[in-house]
Amino acid sequence: MQPSHDHLRPVAGLDLKDALLVGALVTVCSIFGIYTAPPGVLAAFWPTNAVLVGLLLRRAHPPTAAHWLAAVAGYIVADIHMGHGWPKTLMLTTTNLMGVSVCYGLLKRMSDDMRGLRHPRSMLRFVLVALCGAAAAGIGGTVIHPALFGGTRAYGFLFWFSTELVNYIAILPVLLTMPDLARRLAGRTRRSDAAGWRIGHLAPLAAFAGSLWLETQLGGPGVISFPIPAMLWCALTYSLFATAGITLLFSMWTLLAIASGMLAIGAAVDTPQAIMSLRVGVTLTALAPLAVASVMVARNELLARLQHAASHDPLTQVLNRGGFMARADSVRATVVLMMDIDYFKKVNDTHGHAAGDEVLIHFARVAAGCLRAGDVLGRLGGEEFAVLLPDCAPEDARAIAQRICDAFAAQPVVLEGGVRLHATVSIGLGCRDAPDTPIGTLLSQADAALYSAKHAGRNRVVLA
Ligand SMILES: Nc1nc2c(ncn2[C@@H]2O[C@H](COP(=O)(O)OP(=O)(O)OP(=O)(O)O)[C@@H](O)[C@H]2O)c(=O)[nH]1
């Protein structure tokens, strides 16, 4: 019987559509780039290569031969459409692809964190990759530039190298740090939940816009660095992606404003060397805020991990006493449950400490499965757990507690070697009878009720 390949068809169909999209984007970016070229010279702004590298890297799956072929076709279609002959088209396409493949290959080898610029050393590695990709294009430039545009091999190298370096450093960070849609939506929900967004959040952006305006008013060679403090402020305040967008804006604005005369830096930028020097200088200036934003991401992730470690129990992953008490201050619980696993010492003594740990993990999982969204579970210590139940009537709380009791008694823990270990839990409830009852009183009531449950024979729920 022939094996069925039906499961491959949708993927192949998607790949083809995806490849066509890549080809179309390469064509559009290339035509745009060609339009920016002064007569007889190469494009002033060539986003295609950086966009292609970013696109190929951000796909969920590695690019197939179809993607690469579509990209090649994209370059060729653009050049032919703009009236370039076949020899010129093939030479330019080859040189573009040399830089793209080196840049793509090196970035592909990095870890997700490193490539997403979320590691403290990401920017260093990224600049090295951009230098290699630009150098690969530069090597192509040594061969084709003298043939197509005249000039020396060294000039060909420098021209291609500097142009590609600028494009990779200015454009790629935006694509590498762009959040996917699911994450962006999750982020939006979190922000509105926290209601922490203030008008003051716009201050760094306003400072950035103000510094661009000030540049045009004052003029002189120093103005290029005017927006740096505001960009650093943006890097400390906004996401890495937003900072990458702002630095791209800075690079493009500065280059265009100088070229159009809006920004007078007091020096003539009319020789190819001066243009190259300005482009590279402006782009490298934008690296400082990018590096700060990248370090901030790493720092924030580390802080979040530390906060989680400080407030959670490493064994069961529920809140520890500190985390639970901190939540008790913010969650207005109407009922508190105190839960204690019965004869837990015997479990340890009979089956060993590791088996006891398994029982604790199992209990936390069972209890969490019986709770509503918004209820807060914590491990206060040893085999003692507690729950905060906000907006819960005493009878509903009793039903929840009984559900936990029954579920835990009904689901044995299966130990290594297949031993099934049955355990039970006793639960005491403390109910808030006045709005200003402190949480400590509720916990004491629940503790007293738990004591009664133990004395009444265990494996039961008692309301204070
Ligand atoms: N495996 C394991 N045991 C723990 C942990 N923390 C505390 N214990 C043990 O839990 C046991 C608690 O025993 P007791 O306080 O006497 O309570 P009990 O045996 O459950 O008896 P009752 O509560 O009266 O039903 C002690 O033996 C502790 O060593 C832990 O993280 N893992």
From TrEMBL:
Pfam family for this entry, one: GGDEF
UniProt EC number: 2.7.7.65
Keywords, in A-Z order: Membrane, Nucleotidyltransferase, Transferase, Transmembrane, Transmembrane helix
Catalysed reactions listed for this entry: 2 GTP = 3',3'-c-di-GMP + 2 diphosphate
Gene Ontology molecular function terms on file: diguanylate cyclase activity
Residue runs in coiled coils: none
SMART domains tied to this protein: GGDEF
Group of enzyme by EC: transferase
Membrane-crossing segments per the record: 20-45, 89-107, 127-148, 154-175, 195-214, 220-241, 248-269, 275-298
Xref: Gene3D superfamilies: 3.30.70.270
Domain GGDEF: 332-464
Alphabetized PANTHER family for the sequence: DIGUANYLATE CYCLASE DGCM-RELATED, REGULATORY COMPONENTS OF SENSORY TRANSDUCTION SYSTEM
Protein name: diguanylate cyclase
